[in-house]
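User: Hi! I'm working on a homework problem where we have to compare a predicted structure to a textbook description. Could you give me the structure for the chain below?
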Amino acid sequence: MSLESPPNKAIIITDFHNPDTVDQIRPNGGTVILQPIAMRIPNSHGVYSPSQLRPQKAVSYEEFLARYANHPRGMRVCFDEIPTPTTIIERSELVTAYGFGLDCWYVVTP
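Assistant: Happy to help. Predicted structure tokens:
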């Protein structure tokens, strides 16, 4: 089984981390919590996991729209606490990640 997208096909992003989730946060205080992700286990499939070295980042809804929302990317992320090389691919899901400049990639926490 290959995790690579076929050429000339659109990537479908799941509902777990999408802009609709961010729009629901605005009435609840206007803060967006971003979880940094990193490739904790090097792999050829490009599967990332939540970073344990960088803390979560809280930004205002307006800052999220200005700096991150225009830079989405579909990425495979494994949310297991302790990912292993054998399960990281099986338990990964396609989510929307956001990046800005040379900063790391982030996913929006629900």
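For your comparison, note the following. The CA atoms of residues 32 and 59 lie 5 Å apart. The beta strands are 31-38, 47-50, 57-60, 72-78, 92-98, 105-108. Good luck with the assignment!
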